[in-house]
Amino acid sequence: MACSRWSLIITAVAAVGCSLFLSDASRAVGGPPGDWDSIPPQVQIIDQRTFNVLHTVPPPTEADGNAQFIPPGTTKESLAARPFHIYDKEFLDIIGPHPTLTLLAHTDSDPLFHEAPVWYPGKDEMFFVQNAGAKAAGTGLAKSAIIQKISLSAVTPAVASQRDARGSVKVEVVDSNPMVVNPNGAINYKGQLLFLGEGQGDKTAPAMYLMNPEAPYNTTVILDNFFGRQFNSLNDASINPRNGEIYFTDPTYGYVQDFRPPPGLPNQVWRFNEATGAVAIAADGFNMPNGITFSPDGSHVYVADTGMIQGFFGNNFTFPSTIYRFDVNEDGTLDNRRTFAYVTPGVPDGLHVDTKGNVYAGCGDGVQVYNPSGKLLGKIYVGSTSANFQFAGKGRMVVLAETELYYATLAAEGAFPGKLY
Ligand SMILES: *[C@@H]1O[C@H](CO)[C@@H](O)[C@H](O)[C@H]1NC(C)=O
Ligand SMILES: *[C@@H]1O[C@H](CO)[C@@H](O)[C@H](O)[C@H]1NC(C)=O
């Protein structure tokens, strides 16, 4: 970013220059309220140097991989009051001069806003699904998680300008037919919505369903086995923009969340060529492969590993909470697995990229944003787990946070949402 209006604003607040953006930012972080008047109302700087030395650092039994870290000089309330957290000046280009975050809906305990956010540009609607494995939802074995949608045209600028706009937007249930059983992931595919279902018990195999994005929401299963063997519990997918193949992850969450039998396949990443029918391994060596997304030019693929969360085995904080990056060869094979980012709190779950190649991850405190080198740029902070989120073209994003549904405006543009392939 050039020395612009932005750096002038920040300079006025934190007495910093363009090249030393965060110097003395600690004053801004904890500074007197008057200092904040010229910073956009929903933005704050988090200066990591203010907590490199804490003097008293709690043991792992207290500060574990799920613990929400409250930097000195902040509170949970102050972090939420200005939810766009700048860790690096590159984040300014992503959020733009006036980002907003709006609560659209809330439930007391039912995790209705969990996963599979997918934008249907035809009607400007965002679809998403309930948590299939959460006890509070009663889903999984007893009944399937549901698909829902909201109309984004209902989120007017007047709605988006509010922090709490509950009740402004109708959340509608989508009755897929035949039903997508325990959906967890979704992407745009050939004008349809492609859902990944985790399956149910040992009779209903995990499957990939194409769903008509308009009523009657009829579905067609396009894959439900590997040479006659059930997948474990299909989780998420992304299209390789160079060859159009569907790359998808298959961890064992259905089993460790009590609605699928013990797994019969390794935890791995697969690829599916719908035209030829070929299903093949893309990569293994994962604990719980989860979110997956290609870079905008298709040269890399990012895969999240949420191994830290082991369902009924509990959490194991020595297991991955990690995003890996591979090179994607011309023939679609994956090479050069590289450790891209390790996140806290929680795990990196849903992954998406913007048109510049920055990587967004749904994590334990909201959406964390990394540049293509794996540097943390900033966060859209919700103070609790966001398993996934999705761009709706340029400048708009829906953030799912289990019992909360948020809408964000920012400057960045999603790389793939709405791309039909
Ligand atoms: C939905 O039904 C229509 C009409 O029969 C059909 O053309 C279309 O392929 C179906 N879509 C899916 C995803 O099953
Ligand atoms: C975590 O996993 C390691 C390696 O398998 C194991 O030794 C350890 O006991 C596990 N910890 C917990 C808390 O389950």
UniProtKB/TrEMBL annotation:
InterPro entries xrefs: 6-blade_b-propeller_TolB-like (IPR011042), Oryzine_lactonohydrolase (IPR052988), SGL (IPR013658)
A Pfam family reported for this protein in Swiss-Prot or TrEMBL: SGL
Secretion signal span: 1-30
Protein's name according to its UniProt entry: SMP-30/Gluconolactonase/LRE-like region domain-containing protein
Domain SMP-30/Gluconolactonase/LRE-like region: 218-395
Keywords, comma-separated and alphabetical: Signal
Lineage: Eukaryota, Fungi, Dikarya, Ascomycota, Pezizomycotina
Organism of provenance: Thermothielavioides terrestris (strain ATCC 38088 / NRRL 8126) (Thielavia terrestris)
Gene3D superfamilies linked to this entry: TolB, C-terminal domain (2.120.10.30)
